[in-house]
Amino acid sequence: MRIFFIGAVKFSEAMLNILIEHKDAEIVGIATKSQSRFNADHVNLSFIAEENDIQYKYVKDINAPHILEWIESLNPEVIYCFGWSSLIKKELLNLSPLGVIGYHPAELPMNRGRHPLIWALVLGLERTGSTFFKMDEGADSGEILSQYFISIEREDYAADLYEKIIESAKIQVHKFTHQLAKREHLFIAQDHSKANLWRKRGMADGRIDFRMSSDSIYNLIRGLSKPYVGAHIDFQENEYKVWAAQTCDDLYPNFEPGKVLEIDSQGAIKVVTGSSSIWLVEHEIPSSNSIEYLF
C-alpha cells in the first residue's frame, strides 16, 4: 500500500520506523520540518528518508498548492499524519482514496484539542487513550480506525506516558496498516455528544502557585516535565524550572503556603502547600539554606 507520511516529532519517528519495516507499506514520500518553534520533541525525519531512498520535503504549509501537487504526483493510497502542528485542509483530506489518518493520544471522543498528554497528567487522569482516526475538517472528530486504552500510574511523568503511547501506537499502526492494505479496516463514527475540547496551554498554565494542593502541584510538574518545557516558579524576579517532586501527607496549619520547611543535602526543597507540603526533588532553583519562602 502506497503511503505518504507527514510528521516532525519523536512520535512520528517511531511510527515511520515501524512502517519502513512493514511488508504491506510502501512509503512514497515524507513531509517533515527542519526545525520547530512549537514542538519540544521535534525530530527532523530527513535522515530516515535519505537512509531509505524516500522522497522528502521540508514543509511550512502542508496545504500549499505546490505541496499538494507533489503529494498527488506520488499517487498515495493513504496519507498518515502523525505529529504535525498545523491544520489539514479539505483539499489534502480528499487527495487519497483512503483519506488522511491522524492520531490523538486521548480517549476520543473525549478530550479533543490541544496538549492531550499534558492535560491528562495535569488533571490527574488515571486512564487515557491512543486513537487513530480518519481526519475530517473538525478538531479530532473523524471516524475512529483504532483505539487502545492506556493506564496512567501516579508515578508516571510525561516521558513515561509518552513511551507508553508510543508502544501502544506501534502495535496499532502495524495492525491497521495491514487491514487498510487488504481493505479489511473498519471506521467507527464518534459520539459527538460525549466530546469536550481541551484548550491551548500558555506559560501561565505552567506556573506553580503553592496555594494549590500538593497533588495539583505534583500533577503540574509531572505533566510538564521532559520532553516538555517544565513547570516553573517565579522567585526573586526570576523563573526557575521544577522537573520532579514528591508529595507529603504532613500538615502545617500555622504555616503559610510557599514557606520553605527544609533543604536536604541533595538540594531538594520541602515547601508548604495549600493542602500539606511537597518536596521539590529536581529543580533549577539556586541552592541556598537561607531561602525562607518560594514566591
Q: What's the helix count?
A: 7
Number of strands: 14
CATH superfamily of the largest domain: Formyl transferase, N-terminal domain
**Mind telling me the C-alpha Rg?**
22 Å
Tell me the fraction of residues in β-strands, as a range: 25-35%
Structural category: alpha/beta
The N- to C-terminal Cα distance equals 57 Å
Summarize the biggest pleated sheet: 7 strands, mixed
Which stretches of 5+ consecutive residues score pLDDT under 50? none
Helix fraction bin? 10-25%
Instruction: Give the C-level CATH assignment of the largest domain.
Output: Alpha Beta
CATH fold description of the largest domain: Rossmann fold
Task: Tell the overall outline.
Answer: elongated
Order of helices and strands: EHEHEHEHEEHEEHEHEEEEE
Quickly give the CATH architecture of the largest domain. 3-Layer(aba) Sandwich
Average per-residue pLDDT, rounded, comes to 95
Q: How many discrete domains? A: 2
Strand order of the largest sheet: 3-2-1-4-5-7-8
Give a short synopsis of this structure.
The chain is an alpha/beta fold and 295 residues long. It has seven helices and 14 strands. It folds into two domains: 2-197, Rossmann fold (3-Layer(aba) Sandwich); 203-283, Methionyl-tRNA Fmet Formyltransferase, Chain A, domain 2 (Roll), CATH 3.10.25.
